[in-house]
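Record 1 of the preview.
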Amino acid sequence: MAFGSFDEGGAGQPMAEINTTPLVDVMLVLLVIFIITAPLFQQAVPIDLPQVSATKLDEKPEVIQLAIDIDGRIFWNGEALARDALDGRFAASSSRQPELHLRADRKVPYEKVADVMAAAQRANIVKIAFLTEPAR
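->
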């Protein structure tokens, strides 16, 4: 029994095409059913959760703005600071895991930036951000 058209001129060649229209129709119906029933699964199990009164912890971390200018001078939140005093300032502020925002002039030698980062690491400061300006 050959599949194909009913005319005898085709020499009994089987039809190689698959009609996908019924398949697409079934898939669309299933999609609509899942879209309608999916929101119902969210509230399927009613749970009586306990009521507690607690305050949110909105404690913002301390942010240290550290800048290094072209001459290698260090500025702590806009205040000039000697390199020798940097370790002491880091040690005094490391009680609450501060964030370090580091800005350095593009002509500052990498050694000075690495020195400041090493001082921050010795004070256990792990959140360091490098601030840049967008390209023009």
